[in-house]
# Entry
Amino acid sequence: MRILIKNVHALLPDGTTPLTNIMLDGTKISAIGEVPEDFHPARVLDGTGHLAIPGLVNAHTHASMTLLRSYADDMNLMDWLQNKIWPIEAEMNRGDIYWGAMLAAAEMIRTGTTAFADMYGPFMDAVAEVVIDSGLRGVLSRGIIGVAPDGEAKIAENTALYREFHGAGEGRVTVMYGPHALYTCPPDFLKKVAAEAQKVGAEIHIHMSETKGEVENCLKEYGKRPFAHVESTGIFDGGTLAAHCVWLDDEDISIIKRHGIRVAHNPGSNMKLASGVAPVPRLLQEGVCVALGTDGASSNNNLDMLEEVQLAALLHKVDRLDPLAVPALEAVRMGTEYGAQAVGLKDTGKLAAGQQADIALISLQNTAFCPKHNLVSLLAYSARSTAVDTLLVAGKVLMEKGELKTLDEERIMFEAQRCADRLTNLRK
Amino acid sequence: MRILIKNVHALLPDGTTPLTNIMLDGTKISAIGEVPEDFHPARVLDGTGHLAIPGLVNAHTHASMTLLRSYADDMNLMDWLQNKIWPIEAEMNRGDIYWGAMLAAAEMIRTGTTAFADMYGPFMDAVAEVVIDSGLRGVLSRGIIGVAPDGEAKIAENTALYREFHGAGEGRVTVMYGPHALYTCPPDFLKKVAAEAQKVGAEIHIHMSETKGEVENCLKEYGKRPFAHVESTGIFDGGTLAAHCVWLDDEDISIIKRHGIRVAHNPGSNMKLASGVAPVPRLLQEGVCVALGTDGASSNNNLDMLEEVQLAALLHKVDRLDPLAVPALEAVRMGTEYGAQAVGLKDTGKLAAGQQADIALISLQNTAFCPKHNLVSLLAYSARSTAVDTLLVAGKVLMEKGELKTLDEERIMFEAQRCADRLTNLRK
# Structure
């Protein structure tokens, strides 16, 4: 179907925001500019008073954990995990995974996110179902804990997920392998995951160097820092999305560059869990692809990617005492273009002819966008994601003027609360 | 007039959020709880599906600077001030000051702020007019630069502002003196301001120890750190609201405690301008009143106090690598109860009988508040200020279900854009 988004400010790859028209043909952007006489759209979306940006890409999350939003906060990490998060996760059934992911999908659509990289489980088929039905793009991986008795079974589940869903939903579902982290997967186990992933041709999504303690323990146990240790297992040989990457030294960064590892930076989660500040300005300077993620909603506590763009633009300035660190446009690119690249989406993440039509329309008719000296600065430093009122993925409208087109939000919130209540009653 | 806010979750001073009723009588909260048979409200606001919180207090801003939102970003501080901000400020006329403050007022009402402490000028009478007409509370001070040739005249303007407006708008306008900072006001000049303020019985609003350079230059020039230096001028003797307070040592903190100085912490601005991280957890631990502010919208770039609550809750955790630093409830109190105390508002900042009826109603019918395990965590870590849909100040409704009752928002945005366009054309 041909769609015309007319009279809209479009954030182009060069950072300009001219008033123009965006033409879609099928799943892609066919042109941006003057509308040719022979372009006959089946639908016209009036972009007046709106800024069109590439859809935001959440490069690291655990969607179904949205069910645990505000369940446990302001605790020390291990106390939080061992006494709150892990016990309640152990009780989650397929319905919980499904409605948690549905709640995440509704929130992502509302806040301008068009694609997300997810690591969770069990029942990742339920998350795939959510991706297919919501119209979003999902890069799914089964979170694999090698130290658990069913570690091997989880590798098999990831393989089944790949076989059943990679390329499903008209290509909107893709599958990676999700070895959780080096401290939950011994080296021989990581080797198995690497071999299996490479056998099917899938990439890896893994947590790396999130906390200082992780680095210290890795040094103590294996005599190497995390990147050198994991490199030795072959995990990085088939393409890798590495979440966090907070505690890095020169050697770590050279390994990241050597393997073309893409980094998912999670400023909100790193701040809330007090993990530390990742060396993002340096990584960007060295040409590493740094995307943004929210992490799970229980450590954030939302899936608001525009908030992560703002945090990325603010955190590194104060951390480096450098007001030029991560400028507005670079932060926006991390949330869009670099995000798409990081999670392995081809021809996605930019407003340009030939790119996938993953587009968020943001209303400029609110005080946060007044006055309009610089739309990119306003987007990065002032806007709120609630100003997103229309969202397209692969040329399909998922939200129009604030109304969700693929999901029943009322029902989702009702069911999510019901699941949450059941889980917390079990834990009382 | 008696108003009943019925069936609402109310954030009480102890941090609980029971489902209850709030009764207002005139400008105050008369009771919270069961509605007595003899309470006959003239109006009933249905609080179903809402959380009532004390109105947010913006303890440090420059409201009219909202006109410069996104005018200049991602620059070094002195380059930004000298080449962009100060030249355009020099062109601002009374209309600019008025419409800039009107834009700020509209944004504050929309985002749940009921009171703000402002330092700016000239034409602070225009800001007073905005406070009176909008229904907000404003704690106004004339920003006084002593090194300018008209320094003395500015003290006189501040005195005139006090004489004309202190207590105006049924007490909603109060006036402080605004000596800008020690680096723009030589010591003898600060002494004059202190004497004048104490003569009329007004408090002081001043920038203190915002940057490392300010502390170093003060040591070089006066042989003392900023707090000892300013203390010697008498500025702290009549009650002080000190903005920023980023670079503090033990002696500074003991001076803050000795004079009961209230601190306005501005996490967003401190991050964006790369000023540094204020030692907020320590100040709170030592019993100092620490409030939150946005600073001007040109260094933030919005007036969203809930964002500052979230930043305060996040920034200090990662700065101290302590996930227990500034927990959710404490961050919310900084934005409400401590804010009211910091800017000198009596009986304001808490939902309790006898307190001023400054109340924000936040809709819980959105994904950011789902599921509802803990409303305070959701407020601090997940909510967006756009969920505020009803706002009362001194028992008067300024916004109801998203509709502004005292201001014409469309007109304000139009006029603000017109002023901004005129100013930037002058600077071209």
In short: The two ends of chain A are 52 Å apart (CA to CA). Residues 56 and 113 of chain A are 4 Å apart (CA to CA). Residues 409-426 of chain A form the longest helix (18 residues). Chain A has two domains: 2-54+348-404, 56-342.
